[in-house]
Amino acid sequence: MIRNHLLELVTFIVILAFIGIFLLVSANGAHTFGGLDDLGSQKVGEMTGRPADSFKPLIPQYEPPSGEIEATLFALQAAFGGLVVGLVFGYWLGQKRRAPAP
């Protein structure tokens, strides 16, 4: 019985650990989350002596005109990603069920 549910138990423990670490890190609230793009720009700026704001991307990033459009695009991206993941797992499950039993 335990062997059948070992993966679920490990997954549950990992999720609990992730939530615990997130709550522990975000408890004091004295820090800000920044991306690697900002950190990289700052380091290059320190090395070259140019301010980090002077760096422009080669391909400009699209900025939607309103927050509603941005949220809609994010929801569409999440739905598409969920569809792809569901199709992959469904295909694997179908192949497993179709395979002859040894």
The coarse silhouette is extended
What's the story with the biggest beta sheet?
A: none
- What is the first-to-last residue Cα distance? 22 Å
Written as H for each helix and E for each strand, in order along the chain, the element string is: HHH
Total strands: 0
Overall domain count: 3
Please state the average pLDDT score: 82
Low-confidence stretches: none
Walkthrough of the structure:
The protein has about 100 residues and is mostly helical. It has three domains: about 1-30; about 30-55, no CATH class; about 60-100. About 65% of the residues lie in helices and about 0% in strands. The protein has three helices and no strands. It has helices at about 5-25, 35-50, 65-100. The longest helix is centred in the C-terminal third of the chain and has 32 residues, at about 65-100. The model has no long low-confidence stretch (mean pLDDT about 80).
Set down the secondary structure blueprint:
Elements: H1 6-25, H2 36-48, H3 67-98
